[in-house]
Amino acid sequence: MKVYLLGAGPGDPGLLTLKARDALAAADVVVYDALANDSLLGHARPDAELIYVGKVAGNHALPQHEINALLVRKAKEGNMVARLKGGDPYIFGRGGEEAEELLAAGVPFEEVPGISSTIAAPAYAGIPLTHRDFASSVTIITGHENPDKPGSVHNWQALARSASTLVFVMGMKNLPDIARNLLDAGLDPRTPAALIYRGTTPRQRSLVATLRELPQAAVDAHFTNPSVIVVGKVASLHDKLNWFEKKPLLGKSIVVTRAREQASGLARSLAGLGAEVIQCPTIEIRALPDYAELDMAVARLADYVIVEADGAKRLPLKAHAAHEPVIPPEANQTILVVGASGFGRPMYETVHRAPLAAQALGVPEDTVVTPALWAQFLEHEHLHTRVLVNQADLPQGRELARRLAAGLCCPVCAAALQKEWIECLS
């Protein structure tokens, strides 16, 4: 028997530690919180017992003392128990109380630290908690003190005088009091302050205001828990360094209906673009005795036709003959795939049907292919509604893709299809 107190991280499933993942995969029983990303349960064994004990405002699945008793009981039944807690178990997660209970009951345990939202949420919002020009220390403070305590135990004067970045968690309900206490203690009302809602998740939102304006800004923008509050000059870097919220699919939920084993790559790519991916397999895949009818139906219904360079010749660029590619009249989107490795080489080395390309452009076949030249050729062919530049994940490849895009009147994406990476340039 043993209990692992696991930090699930702040929400992004990619921030789960390897040690926590391995313990989760080996557990007989998983006891998990509301703030632990549901997708992490996919690491658990299919036969593992899953027990939800989440706590949200006004709705506790189990009170803390019953959670403590549950951990002891399941462990003493001979199980390996994974206690999955949002963030880090020992940072405002009551993991210390659970550890004390296990120790008193003679149950062996380990604590596996997790990445706390106090660190991760500001980082995903472009706010480094320390910065040589602004702050050399961080103070982490609960915004939801024990209601049994007589008054606040925080030394507001010390916090206000400190040059530290102040991070408050679970403090949205008390945000007006937090701001007032800091202002009354002498903190400059113009001090930058930030709110980050559901940091590191596809639903992340953030805002920056002065400390004096922050409570009203939170009301106007409808911010609620779970939100992290950051007070300090480092919050001024938010607009410049906020990388996560610039992802093109952030805030979008996308249902992937393919079989899970087939959709994993697509799901990862969509998640990498910021989407909340819901995998919901709705099909059963099996072989058909005859594919002729299916092929005809697909040809009639196609919305997208992907036109790639010649696979047999293994050349990255292609001039198209009159008889191909076959584009059904019903298709409304044609995507031309261009290999970035084709640029900077003579046309006869890199283009399938080089004579056709040379004739269309009025140049010799030994002309070096540049992005500008190939853009001219693609515009001449009029086959595309979009262009995808493959092999463009390195800086040089991205630059070539940008140069190609500059000569085209259609959307262009840089991609590395084998690495399941894509970036829209226009």
Structure commentary:
The structure is a single chain. By secondary structure, the protein is α/β, with parallel strands linked by helices. The chain folds into 4 domains: 2-114, Cobalt-precorrin-4 Transmethylase, domain 1; 118-245, 2-Layer Sandwich (Methyltransferase, Cobalt-precorrin-4 Transmethylase, Domain 2), CATH 3.30.950.10; 249-286, no CATH class; 299-424, no CATH class. The chain is built from 14 helices and 21 strands. It has helices spanning 18-26, 64-76, 95-104, 117-124, 156-161, 175-184, 214-220, 238-241, 260-272, 292-301, 347-350, 354-361, 371-381, 395-406; strands spanning 2-7, 29-32, 49-52, 55-56, 59-60, 80-85, 109-112, 138-142, 165-169, 192-197, 205-210, 227-231, 253-256, 276-279, 304-307, 317-318, 333-339, 351-352, 386-390, 412-416, 421-424. The strands form 6 sheets. A 5-stranded parallel β-sheet has the order 3-2-6-1-7, with helices on both faces. A 5-stranded mixed β-sheet has the order 8-9-12-10-11, with helices on both faces. It is globular. 35% of the residues are buried. The model has no long low-confidence stretch (mean pLDDT 88).
